[in-house]
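Quick one, tokens below:
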């Protein structure tokens, strides 16, 4: 009938205006990515405010970088150097997912200012293996099923290496106490302790 309402079948009609609007939005987003190669590569662009030039030795290589003096080591590693093994779990130094080594000692990289690493040795999970050969602790985590989802694993492994290196793998209670700052929400603690014991028994760290 003339003037009768058309039935609504629950499907929203696509008009020329909405189609054009969607196309413009997509094109704009693509232009923004193309205009920023760093964003396209997943690496943050260099800061535009006041910066400090530092040269930390990251995984054995002197790495010049200009950073905002407020930048954490974790953010520098992930956003400027594309080393994403260290994870941002809590950003308060409470979960251990961001653990790396500074001059051979474990630290929470989320609580460490990047400027403090100038001229110092920073080791991340990416620098632990020897080429294609896994570090003994990495292999032990595989052998003892010391991981599940894997999010905390890089930090767990870095802390585990430090546990042995610093002489804290003398017994299960001591290992558990040392590793208590590294949280595994999947509950793989039994395998983690077993992996540390296995590597310690080999006299390797």
């Amino acid at each position: 009938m003339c003037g009768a309402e058309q039935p609504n079948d629950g499907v929203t009609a696509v008009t020329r205006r909405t189609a054009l609007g969607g196309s413009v939005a997509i094109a704009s987003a693509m232009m923004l990515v193309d205009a920023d190669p760093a964003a396209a590569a997943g690496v943050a662009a260099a800061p535009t405010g006041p910066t400090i030039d530092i040269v930390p030795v990251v995984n054995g290589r002197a790495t010049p970088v200009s950073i905002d003096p407020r930048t954490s080591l974790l953010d520098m590693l992930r956003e400027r150097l594309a080393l994403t093994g260290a994870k941002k779990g809590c950003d308060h130094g409470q979960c251990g997912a961001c653990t790396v080594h500074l001059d051979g000692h474990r630290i929470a990289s989320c609580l460490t200012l990047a400027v403090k690493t100038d001229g110092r040795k920073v080791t991340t999970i990416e620098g632990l293996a020897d080429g294609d050969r896994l570090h003994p602790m990495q292999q032990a985590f595989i052998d003892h099923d010391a991981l599940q989802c894997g999010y905390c694993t890089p930090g767990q492994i870095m802390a585990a290496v430090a546990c042995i290196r610093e002489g804290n793998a003398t017994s299960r209670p001591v290992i558990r106490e040392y590793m208590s700052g590294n949280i595994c929400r999947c509950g793989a603690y039994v395998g983690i302790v077993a992996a540390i014991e296995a590597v310690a028994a080999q006299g390797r760290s």
